Amino acid sequence: MKPVRTAARMLLSGIFVASGARSLADPDRVAASAKRVTDRVGPAVRQIHPSLPADARGLVRLNGAAQLAGGVLLASGRLTRPAAALLAGSIVPTTIAGHAFWEYDDKAQRSQQQTQFLKNLAVLGGLMLAAVDTEGRPGVRWRTAHAMERTSKSARRAAHTARREARLAVRGAGRYLPR
Question: CA 143 to CA 122: how far, in whole Å?
């Protein structure tokens, strides 16, 4: 299954590497359409960290950097789950800003934007799967439950052994007590 996962991650990451690099190189290309989202998100970003950009151009570049970094990490197989989660978070504002099909009156443009919107939702679904994929290894929940079970068994064995040794010690000590 590893070759399938590797190929899937590489195919899924390609769009993010390409669009992230384009957004970093030329943020003005999409800054105008991103403005409907960045005007709402900018103040919240400024509250989170004052040094982060809050303008449309800066947020487009920040999103592009996140997409490029997340795409490279996902494609390389490094930190795949956090990278997929980062990309899932970055595709939501990108989709809302870039493919607001409900705002188009022209039927052909509306249909095209709706197709792109739905394509991004499908990509989001793939990213969600990649974010929770443990590659066949047990998840944290399973490992925690089994570690607790092993610890509990170990403690019970230790207590049983201690009781048995205490009984043997008492019996052994009784032989040496005066009668």
Answer: 31
- Tell me the backbone φ, ψ of residue 138, rounded to 5 degrees: -60, 145
Question: How do residues 55-76 score in pLDDT, each as one tens digit?
Answer: 888 889 989 999 999 999 999 9
Q: How far is CA 123 from CA 31, 53, 69, in A?
A: 22, 27, 17
For the four alpha carbons of 163, 164, 167 and 169, in that order, the dihedral sign comes to: negative
Residue 103 parent element (H or E): none
**End-to-end Cα separation, the chain, in angstroms:** 74
For the whole model, what pTM was predicted?
Answer: 0.71
Q: Are 95 and 121 in contact, with CB atoms under 8 Å apart?
A: yes
Which residues contact residue 69 at a Cβ distance below 8 angstroms, ignoring those fewer than 6 apart?
20, 83, 86
Rounded distance between C-alpha atoms, residue 101 and residue 115, angstroms: 9
Q: What is the pLDDT of residues 149-162, one digit of tens each?
A: 889 889 899 889 99
Closest CA to 66 of 31, 109, 20, 106: 20
